[in-house]
What does this fold into?
Amino acid sequence: MKISDLITSANRNLLRNKTRSFLTILAIFVGSFTIILSSAINAGVNDFIDKQVASIGGDGFIEVMPAAASEQIMERMQSGEKVTEYNEKTGSVTSASISEEDFEAMKKVDGVKELEVYHILSPEWMRLKNAEKKYNVSVEYFPVGTMNVDLSAGRMTNDKSDDYEIVVNEDWLKPFGLDKAEDAIGKTVEIATKQTVKCYVAPSDCLAVVEAKIVGVQAPGVLSVSGDLHISRALDQELYRLANEGISEESLGIYFAVGEVEPDKIEDIRKTFKEIGSGYTFITVDDTVGMIRTFFDVILTVFNIFGVIALIAAAIGIINTLFMSVQERTREIGLDKALGMSRVKIFLSFSIEAISLGFWGSVFGIIVSMLIGFSVNNFLHSEGQILETFPTFELARFSPEVIIPIVLLVMFIAFLAGTAPALQAAKKNPIDALRYE
It folds into this structure.
């Protein structure tokens, strides 16, 4: 008997007891559906993150902070607690700073192209020049050469110029009463910041207002430079100066630094930075992306665990189904052996039945998961839904490299589950089997 005959015979035997076979396939379907869909979502998320990383570049971007500050931030993120116990050794986040001496030493490390103080800015509001409505705003400055910001209109800021320039994202178009990104280019905005020292003397009259020109509009993207505004170096320094006017430089300190390094020397630079002074944490775009991936991986791992549990239950169902099938077909097995069918072919016959159960269960899992995945993906990309602004984000990415390994795994698990019943059938004595009632 050829393998093709064994496959045909095995699938025909599954139809002898349609209800039992259907319930077993259904159990396999639940497990394979869960694993296939979660793996497709994982592939879709990672593919989108990879595209975003490729679009913004940032291979040489670095962020440096004191190790104590980094540890406290990570502890809060991991514990999820809003209130944490004070540690005298590390102090507060702002008490852990980079000394001027260490900062200068870092700038001279081999492979460091540029390193600048990262100013923590908290403007009070922003509005179009002479407009009535004011809006809450957050601003950040990154050296232009470190990131490739995806723009829907205009250009990036010129950090070599003394002009005050900003790049807004598309969320600002509607509040400003603008129809498209091109309409924002050249518009002047007013940014107000509190002057800390003046606010102690005259709280009602301590705002300093700076005018800046919009030179670019940033396109949507989950890994785009954070903050509502990307500001030029000149504007960053002016807002920082106004906010801290009257405060000594010694009191301000250096809490964070950002810059650009040679990508192929990142690991050596990381080690050197940790050796300088009291120890510093070195964060790259890859580190940030790794944390994002970890977040999604944890969630999807939970779904995969449920899928594996369902497959284990399905494996037990396969064992039960085939043991009952062996029992019902005892005389048939005896007749096959009497006619010269070998133990190997008897074993293969039942093993192929088990594999067929796994195959059909995974096929139905693929069909249903793809239907749900594509339907949800289309819905979330429709007008007014959360993925409307991310047209390249494929929520569930069904590709052969994702689907085929899972199908093979399910079939292998089914084969293992069917081994014991197949061995029992292969070992039956033909004379005893023919006498079986």
